[in-house]
Amino acid sequence: MSQCTAPVEGHRKPGSAAKCPVPSGAKHAPSAGLPRPTAQVVRLPKSSPARRRLADDLSAPPEVLAALVGDEEWHVREGVARNPSTPPGALTALATDGSGSMRATVAGNPSTPPEVLAVLAGDEFWDARRGVAQSPGTPPEVLATLTADGHGVVREEANKRIPSRMSERLGIDETNTDALNLLREERWWEMDANSPAVVVAKALHPNA
What is the residue-level pLDDT of the chain in tens, covering all 208 positions? Predict the structure, then answer.
């Protein structure tokens, strides 16, 4: 048997090439402990209009949208922040953008993770907080805090959405305002349809 001529790094330990049964000239697959080839670099268009179209494309690959997060053009990044196909990690990065308008766009994206929305609920830019109040992905306890926000528009948006969120969670008709109001000042987001307080509220004010 001829000695293997495959690269030394293809063998598990020094000196094993002479005993290797692989035919001369063949190549080994890299062993598990060796570095793997790096992921292919995403190539982006040089044209700004082309990158804008790509940022708005709902079918754009996640890795492409993630690569556009660092684009020097604001409108490209804004398109990525608005695109519901943008991966959570990219939206998380854009949530720290220096532009309040950009953060508001992230808050309005239905794919933004709940933990990011929780952070944006405390954003200094009121339009970002309004986006959080409007998002169906906002944790209920965060939405409840926004009902006491310092800006009237944010409070209005949060209060507008509380009944539907309570109804969905507690099994109380959204039109049954008497039952919902009994629980509104409680920590209703920690309750369910079988919680004692909910049972009492429904007993006092049955659904129509």
Answer: 444 544 444 444 455 444 454 444 444 344 344 344 344 577 887 888 999 999 999 999 999 999 999 999 999 999 999 999 999 999 999 999 999 999 999 999 999 999 999 999 999 999 999 999 999 999 999 999 999 999 999 999 999 999 999 999 999 999 999 999 999 999 999 999 999 999 999 999 998 7
Q: Is 147 within a domain?
A: yes
DSSP string across 135-201: -TTS-HHHHHHHTT-SSHHHHHHHHHHHHHHHHHHHT--TT-HHHHHHHHTS-GGG--TTSHHHHHH
> Model-level pTM greater than 0.90?
no
Identity of residue 105: T
Which residues, including other chains, have CB under 8 Å from residue 6's CB and lie 6 or more apart? 17, 20, 22, 25, 26, 27, 28
In a domain, 94, yes or no: no
Assigned domain for 127 exists: yes
Residue 62 maps to a domain: no
Domain count of the fold of the chain: 1
Range of the domain at 136: 123-208
